[in-house]
Write a structure and sequence with these properties.
This protein is 24% helix and 37% strand. The chain is of the alpha+beta class and 188 residues long. This is RNA 2',3'-cyclic phosphodiesterase.
Length: 188
C-alpha cells in the first residue's frame, strides 16, 4: 500500500498572515485552516513505500535545477465552475520564472520513480475554501478577487504526506517529508 502525498509550495509567513487578516474580516466565508494553504505542483494518490527514497532523490535532482519564480496572489477562481463551485481558490500569478516548469519537473520525477501523479492540468492556485455541497460562487469570487499580495520568491518546494481525517475538523493532516531548494534567480 502506498502513501498519499503531494509536491507543493507553502506561502511564506508574511503572505499567510496577509491572507489570514483578509479572512478574519470575513468570518462567514468557508475558509480552510491556514496550515492547509499550499500550491499543489503534483498530487500523488499512492506513493509505494519502497519508492519513497527514489522519489525524494529524483525530486531533489529535478527541482534543484529549477530557478525560483517570483509570484503573487492576484484574482480568484473555483472548481469546477462558478455555478456549481465546490472549491474556491486564489490565483497565483507568475511575475518571473515558471511554476509550470516546477510542476512539470515534479510530475516527471514522480513518474520516473513509479509514483504516478494525477493527470489534471496544472493551474497555479491556492485553495482557500471547500464547500460541503456545490453552490453558486459568484458573490464569493467577487470578494476573493479583491485580495492581492506583495510578490514573493518561491525558494523551496516540499514533498508533503497527506493523512486523511487526521487534521482539525476531520480535514487532512499534512506533514513535510522533504524540502527541496530552488536555484536563486540570476542577479544583474
Amino acid at each position: 500500500m502506498g502513501q498519499r502525498m503531494f509536491v507543493g509550495i507553502r506561502p511564506p509567513a508574511h503572505i499567510r498572515e496577509h491572507i489570514a487578516e483578509f479572512a478574519a474580516a470575513r468570518p462567514d466565508f468557508p475558509w480552510i485552516n491556514e496550515e492547509q494553504w499550499h500550491i499543489t505542483l503534483a498530487f500523488l494518490a499512492s506513493v509505494p513505500d519502497a519508492r519513497h527514497d527514489e522519489l525524494i532523490e529524483r525530486l531533489a535532482d529535478g527541482l534543484g535545477r529549477q530557478v525560483s519564480p517570483l509570484v503573487t496572489v492576484h484574482g480568484a477562481g473555483c472548481f469546477p465552475n462558478p455555478d456549481r463551485a465546490s472549491v474556491l481558490w486564489l490565483r497565483i500569478a507568475e511575475l518571473s520564472g515558471s511554476l509550470s516548469a516546477l510542476a512539470t519537473s515534479a510530475r516527471h520525477a514522480a513518474n520516473k520513480s513509479g509514483s504516478t501523479p494525477d493527470g489534471k492540468r496544472f493551474i497555479p492556485h491556492l485553495t482557500v475554501a471547500r464547500l460541503k455541497r456545490p453552490v453558486s460562487a459568484t458573490r464569493w469570487l467577487r470578494i476573493l478577487d479583491t485580495l492581492t499580495t506583495d510578490p514573493w520568491e518561491v525558494n523551496e518546494v516540499e514533498l508533503i504526506g497527506s493523512y486523511l481525517g487526521e487534521g482539525p475538523a476531520g480535514r487532512p493532516r499534512y506533514e513535510t517529508v522533504a524540502t527541496f531548494q530552488l536555484v536563486p534567480p540570476a542577479t544583474e
